[in-house]
Amino acid sequence: MESRTFAKKNNMRLSNPFVITNDYVSAKYFCDREFETKVLMDNISNGRNSVLISPRRMGKSGLIGHVFAQDQIREKYRLFHVDLYSTSSLAEMVFLLGRAVTDSLKSDSRKGLEGFLSVVKSMRPGFKVDPVTGQFVFDLSMGEITRPKDSLDEIFAYLNNTDKPCVVAIDEFQQIAEYPEKNVIAQIRTHVQKCLNARFIFSGSKRRMMERLFNNPSEPFYLSCVSLFLNPIDRDRYRSFACGLFAEAGKTLDGSCFDDIYSRMEGHTWYVQRVLNEVFARTEQGGAAGVEMVPETISYIIRLESRAYEELFAGFSQTQKRLLIAIAREGKASGITSSAFVKKHALKTPSTVQSAARVLYEYETITKTGNQYSVTNRFFSLWLKERFG
Ligand SMILES: Nc1ncnc2c1ncn2[C@@H]1O[C@H](COP(=O)(O)OP(=O)(O)O)[C@@H](O)[C@H]1O
Ligand SMILES: [Mg+2]
């Protein structure tokens, strides 16, 4: 957050231009996505809600940040962004929504916050006055959210009555399907339909789940939104972006070096960024990054993470471990429950493979594209291959 505000306000340079944290920094460090940005902006200005789907770490949250940073959007709308990834109940979601609203009102006059306070009665205990500054602060603890459904109603009532229209981005939306409370999706759907003052962006990384929520006629979100799938950034555009950022720092990135990184990481944004970040760090000013640096740089990144991978791996069952290794070996594995696959990788039976795959998919340890499985984390996949392959 800090670095974002700083970079935007002062137009300052980051010491390493390849951002690998979750926060959107500024247009300068953000590659392409022109088409997707335009689609989302058009949806907003034409009163449509959007659904944004991609595997994790492809750039959904970054894209939302980028759309929210556009002048036409910032000036016209109140913007709220919540990421539900770590939530597991309606109370936690309400907590984050409340926090997003108060964060965005913070820079405003006291009147804005008081307006919110007068609507969200159920969360009032969370508002405290800072003894030093005399300002309101939202210091709610989870235990204080005792009536989450009422709080949700109140937050939507607030969103429907703000001075400017709102855009609300709900990131990793599929998480709601895991909440123990019944009918949360239906409640949100009703609110969204009634809330004419706000446009919504629902983003999610579990494609099948998102499609079920939004495209299934028996599910309440059917046909209410326009869907957008986020693919890897175009290779040529990414290359000129990366080479440009090297050049600006007085360094050279060989096109062949970039291409090798892009193809090893299959264009998956965060992984490409992570390697570029490391290659940039290893290149002296005036120096050039060549293709020969790539394997050693990737090995180094994997070494840094190897303890974490070891612990992660230790937590899986025998069959899950074997299946992970098998998928990592193949890179992209299809027909994992076929007897040929089971035999080739010394797995037990197709049905044990199937249930292991279900669990690994639930945890997002493996990803499914079409009928092919791969290990979601590309570095973890390489570690598995190196270690057991
Ligand atoms: N267009 C882009 N240009 C450069 N870096 C990006 C771009 N989109 C995302 N990133 C970076 O890639 C990483 C993953 O992006 P993120 O938006 O968090 O993915 P997601 O929300 O899909 O999981 C972040 O570190 C982010 O800064
Ligand atoms: Mg995200």
Summed up:
With 389 residues, this protein is α/β, with parallel strands linked by helices. The protein is built from 17 helices and 12 strands.
Architecture overview:
The protein is an alpha/beta fold and 389 residues long. The chain contains 17 helices and 12 strands. The chain has helices spanning 2-10, 34-45, 60-69, 71-76, 90-106, 110-119, 148-159, 184-194, 207-215, 235-248, 255-264, 269-282, 294-314, 318-330, 339-344, 350-362, 378-388, and strands at 49-53, 78-83, 127-129, 136-138, 166-171, 198-204, 225-229, 252-253, 288-289, 333-334, 366-369, 372-375. The chain has a 5-stranded parallel beta sheet. The protein is globular and about 60 Å long. The site of adenosine-5'-diphosphate (ADP) has 20 residues, from helix 3 and helix 12.
Reconstruct the topology from this structure.
Blueprint: H1 2-10, H2 34-45, E1 49-53, H3 60-69, H4 71-76, E2 78-83, H5 90-106, H6 110-119, E3 127-129, E4 136-138, H7 148-159, E5 166-171, H8 184-194, E6 198-204, H9 207-215, E7 225-229, H10 235-248, E8 252-253, H11 255-264, H12 269-282, E9 288-289, H13 294-314, H14 318-330, E10 333-334, H15 339-344, H16 350-362, E11 366-369, E12 372-375, H17 378-388
Parallel strand pairs: 1-6, 1-7, 2-5, 5-6, 8-9
Antiparallel strand pairs: 3-4, 10-12, 11-12
Helix pairs in contact: 2-3, 5-6, 5-7, 10-11, 12-13, 13-17, 14-16, 14-17
The site of adenosine-5'-diphosphate has 20 residues, from α3 and α12.
